Amino acid sequence: MAKIKHNNFLDTVNDVFTDAKQEGVMHLYAEGDDFSGRTIGINNRKLFHFGTTGYLGLEQDSRLKAAAIEAISKYGTQFPLSKSYISNPLYRELEETVTAMYQNPIIITKNSTLGHMGVIPNAVSDQDAIILDHQVHWSVQSAAKVLKNRSVPIDMIRHNDLNMLEDKIKRLSDRHKRIWYMADGIYSMYGDFSPLQDLKTLCQKYPQLYLYIDDVHGMSWIGKNGTGYALSELKTLTENILLFGTLSKTFGASGAVLVCSNKKMYHEIKTFGGPLTFSAQLEPASVAAATASAKIHLTPEIYTLQNDLRERVDYFNDLLKETDLPLIDHNNSPVFFIGTGMPKTGYNFVSRLMKEGFYVNLGIFPAVPVKNTGVRITISRHNERAEIKELVAAMVHHFPKSLEDTQTNLPRVRKAFKLEVKTNLKESLPSDLTVTLENSIMKIDKGLWNKCLGNHGVFDWEGLRFLEKVFQGNELLEHNWKFKYLVILDDKSEPILATYFTVGLWKDDMLAKETASKAIEETRRTNPHYLTSTVLGMGSLFTEGRHLYLQSKHPLKQQALDALMQTMEILEHQTKAKMIVLRDFLIKDKLHDYFQGQGFVRVQMPNTCKIDLGFQETLDSYIAKLSSRNRRHLRREILDVESTLDIRFLKSCDKLQLNRIQELYNQVHQNNLGLNTFSFPEKLFQSMSDSPYWEFIVVNTLEVPEKIIGVMLCYKNQNISYVPSFVGLDYDYLATYHTYRQLLFQTIKRAINLKFMHIDLGMTASFEKRKLGAKVEEAFAYIQTSDNYTLELMGVLE
Hints:
By secondary structure, this protein is of the alpha+beta class. InterPro entries: Acyl_CoA_acyltransferase (IPR016181), Aminotransferase_I/II_large (IPR004839), AON_synthase_class-II (IPR050087), BioF2-like_GNAT_dom (IPR038740), PyrdxlP-dep_Trfase (IPR015424), PyrdxlP-dep_Trfase_major (IPR015421), PyrdxlP-dep_Trfase_small (IPR015422).
């Protein structure tokens, strides 16, 4: 029933990239009549270039240029034939030279993306399984997902978590021939390494384990013959390892290379590898330039180039050690990442550095989590020591100014990246606001709370007192929530912002597609807390509606929002929450830009539905407002059936009735994987029966009046809003009696009779509710995670 409108990943990426483009830090055009590599022309200015992936500067080597020019003169701009038929005359020398570099069989591919698409479906059999590092390059993940069509299981581990990897190997080993672990040699954002020595040991322990390593960012600047980081660690390439390198980036030309010592696998991939067969081959200029580079790699000159780069990298590292700049990973790769935390801080910092004369890359979602935005700096042989020193000085000067401009601070940034925090975050809360944070609604003034948030939903003061009693002191971990109440006042004690949070255990797949949840629930039969996380959520999983009160025209509104963000960070740290979720926002709330700038990803929820009743509304006047088509629907499927049913409004229920109501609620819950949550504690239903604020609309058949076939659990909010919070249904009777539609109609009828002003119909089933006169609006949640693991895992499992 609760079909969530799943977030379109591309919409989120588009939002983030559009912001960065508007800030002038992405989708730029280089300018100028020439390009040296040391500087780059942008917006009529020459900037020192600290964004290249040509770490050794070979793309500017005169030997590569001359080879490319000669190849074009002799063979033209392209060789328009599939390589399966015939390769251009220069290919043989390239393949021989690169083979000499690796001392293993190789296959040249057009680029690494097409290479992965050709190799992975060929190398992985239907009897195999795949495990991805969640930070492995997008091109590897995309190629692996194709195998889901062949029912090859694909799983994922947190970045470099070898304990998690071993657990998954153990679970898969009895059912699969080979288990492929796919990872990068060096990761392109933070410049951190894959633990290849430990992986090699794991391969010896588990002979089924095969490694697929994408080492394009480890190429040329390290290793014998410049064959990269992975091979420098592994020393030899065994038959259970496939290695991808690149002929572009540091290599200075174009294309990619697969290295495979397994002769049988090599033959199968080379004979027919999808895009390797049907895609165009490398242009003659690229082949010639790559050959010229490979020849350099086979001479001692490559080690001179590597040492030259290493001196610059070491110098940059030494300078950074003297600063407070938050370098995310300390290593000896030419890739550095300075964390800024929120995207808007990253935009500001990059803009400032560009104005100062330095071009650097913005590291942003989806390459990193939204709140882990930062500046990606690469060091190359083009960079001179003087400008490296000037860059560090510029960063030291502008980084704190960027933090100040975007209302953040260094402790918040360090906390976002799980770095040591030297300052108490509470010290940074605004001093011109009164920020109150309590752990019980009993500590909050009832009149103040209801003035801000008391007119809708089950989160007026009494409703929250009810929830605190139900969701505390229970046997199961998932049935116990911590409650946090935030109220922000100005100096006249006028509320600017109010909300509440719950901290509890959520299923990681709550917002995933039903196919993913169905597979995960099979594992939860024996491991009930599999793929679950502690979540700090605005509102609760029991309540729906506008959980945030914000006085939008107050002059301190912005400061109050910033205080909200910082308070959530404090709570996240204290509760060890893995995710923050802000729920049930409407387009008209106009907070999207702010939340996205603070590192939240927007997810579309099921539509929210509401009915506003007239002051003297009667059932007849209400029905008269429906369209003629909906009135026909009402008569045929609801009113004509009503006379065959026994409908009651119960303020309390006996034990047998409560058992039946719980049974019907469980039927709906178990059929609702589209919004997959834990069930509620058993004492909930008895507590409802004991409370003066709850009542039950129950539907029985006249033939068997003692058997309830449907129930609506309704909360009475201050005689203002009537809230049908949850429904229970016997699916055996649903089609015959249109039970759900009948319950919706009886809810409206009851609210009118009791003179309520509103009916909060909540989310889901908006089509049915609209037919009965509900106003339907799109609703959104905003999610912030400590990493992208859960989001990417759900994408793999769906």
